[in-house]
Amino acid sequence: MKITELINKNTEVKNILEGIKREENKSIKKHCQYCAEDYKEELQLQLIELSEKYPTYQEQLKNLARELNQVEDQGEGWKEADELTLNPLPLSEIGKYPINVYCDTDIFPTLLINLQVPSCPLSETECQQVKHPHYVLRDHEITIDNESRKIKIGEAIIQERRGASADNPDSRGTQALKLLHKLVPEFTAVHPSTDKKLFQELSRYKNPPRFEVLQEGTFENVCYIDIKSCYANIMRDYPLPCGRPEHLKDPQLIEQNLQEGKGGFVKFYLENYALIKNNQIPFIPTRDYSYEGGKIKPALKGKKRLLLHTQKKGCANKYLDHCDQLKEKKETEKEAVSQLALLKTYYLYRQFLPDKILTIRSDCILVKETTELPPEIEKNNHLYKIKLFKRLKLNKELEIFDCETDTLLKSPKSAKIKTTITGKKQLVERIAHSLSKKRIKLAKSDIEQVIEELLLETKKSLIKGEEVRLLGYFSFKTTITKPRIAMNLQTKKPMKVPAKQVPKCKFAVGLKKEVAKK
């Protein structure tokens, strides 16, 4: 699309009104002359509405509406892009008018290059001959704001929009957020770039989103990235794990890529089970706690095939359509929050190789053997709470242990629970201090010996296949395979514990009694 097309197709009626107020009737007629054929009828109606709203300019607006009937579509007659002249409105006069121009992500980078002199390989004479934009606009004040993606040329503003239109300047991602805000008022309607509270913990819901553990075991030099604290722009370009995004349209090619385990976007609609390999990206979180074997429970009904979808705009469109369906069915809060988990497919983990990803959770990403962060993450390092751990352990229960400090960092039951498994030295000190209050004097070596015996029993239980999990200073639980006799510490009476039942005991009190008996 040429710059002339951008300007002519995005001239807004409010600018026409502003032009009339400034008595720039001649320039206004020039703008109207170059409206494309598709915009004439709509613009005529808007001009008539404005004439009724503003009686002072009623006659002028009606005259403009009548003149549009006699205007031919001159879109095909425009000159080539390298000449870049508007006739009768030359490019050099664009900055004189308050024109708002919206362009897409393909056009905007080209404009940035063409409007900056240092990036032009041609000499000044050559630029003059081909009439490059930066030469034609050399007398205008040009301001480039790369952060907000705006180019200001005099009074004219050129702005990049993602999936925007003249009727709706909001991008599709912003529309999705605003619609989500209507469904779930607790979520913000503003763009994530200005509101970091958008992605909050969803633990108060019955079925919070659950994410796949890609790898299990103990790993060294692990990078921990806190997702909740990061700048999560959900409608940004989502690059594939090892390259640039690719838009696949052929259904057979999509199916083939999916079977080969290649990554990309996944449609929001699922009906049948989908088998996701451990090293395959992307993934889809499941709300079902019976998650097993890499199978993904259906998130929605209505579609039967899982397809690869790498186009961000299509992804937002699907979500908007789905929100409309939810609104019609009056299934608002729970379903909308559930689908938000799909929308929260973070772009961060795609900056790493798939085999380096240890786990992807709703609150963090773990990457192993990371000595140097990717440029995209390093550039925004101040936005993430990134930590480096020497040794971390991951298990199938979706728990994350810091082996160096014996700390349970994360648990799937609640993000707020932080349980510490006390080391042997700290445990000896704690028990010795507790016994001293009871005036029971025992050497620390004796206490340590009892603890060693307890740990030995624990190891034996693990060897037998019994699960032993320490939850903290004061309690532990174990899954047993045979009936046993245990002491009820509340009633102080023996009780028979059936197999597979999980008894809870006061760990510190029980251990203190063992030490006292000795």
UniProtKB/TrEMBL annotation:
<dbReference type="GO" id="GO:0030527">
    <property type="term" value="F:structural constituent of chromatin"/>
</dbReference>
<dbReference type="InterPro" id="IPR010992">
    <property type="entry name" value="IHF-like_DNA-bd_dom_sf"/>
</dbReference>
<dbReference type="InterPro" id="IPR004868">
    <property type="entry name" value="DNA-dir_DNA_pol_B_mt/vir"/>
</dbReference>
<dbReference type="Pfam" id="PF00216">
    <property type="entry name" value="Bac_DNA_binding"/>
</dbReference>
<dbReference type="GO" id="GO:0000166">
    <property type="term" value="F:nucleotide binding"/>
</dbReference>
<keyword id="KW-0239">DNA-directed DNA polymerase</keyword>
<keyword id="KW-0235">DNA replication</keyword>
<feature type="coiled-coil region">
    <location>
        <begin position="316"/>
        <end position="343"/>
    </location>
</feature>
<dbReference type="GO" id="GO:0005829">
    <property type="term" value="C:cytosol"/>
</dbReference>
<dbReference type="GO" id="GO:0003887">
    <property type="term" value="F:DNA-directed DNA polymerase activity"/>
</dbReference>
<dbReference type="GO" id="GO:0006260">
    <property type="term" value="P:DNA replication"/>
</dbReference>
<keyword id="KW-0548">Nucleotidyltransferase</keyword>
<comment type="similarity">
    <text>Belongs to the DNA polymerase type-B family.</text>
</comment>
<keyword id="KW-0175">Coiled coil</keyword>
<dbReference type="InterPro" id="IPR043502">
    <property type="entry name" value="DNA/RNA_pol_sf"/>
</dbReference>
<protein>
    <recommendedName>
        <fullName>DNA-directed DNA polymerase</fullName>
        <ecNumber>2.7.7.7</ecNumber>
    </recommendedName>
</protein>
<feature type="domain" description="DNA-directed DNA polymerase family B mitochondria/virus">
    <location>
        <begin position="217"/>
        <end position="289"/>
    </location>
</feature>
<feature type="coiled-coil region">
    <location>
        <begin position="3"/>
        <end position="81"/>
    </location>
</feature>
<keyword id="KW-0808">Transferase</keyword>
<dbReference type="InterPro" id="IPR000119">
    <property type="entry name" value="Hist_DNA-bd"/>
</dbReference>
<keyword id="KW-0238">DNA-binding</keyword>
<dbReference type="Pfam" id="PF03175">
    <property type="entry name" value="DNA_pol_B_2"/>
</dbReference>
<comment type="similarity">
    <text>Belongs to the bacterial histone-like protein family.</text>
</comment>
<dbReference type="GO" id="GO:0003677">
    <property type="term" value="F:DNA binding"/>
</dbReference>
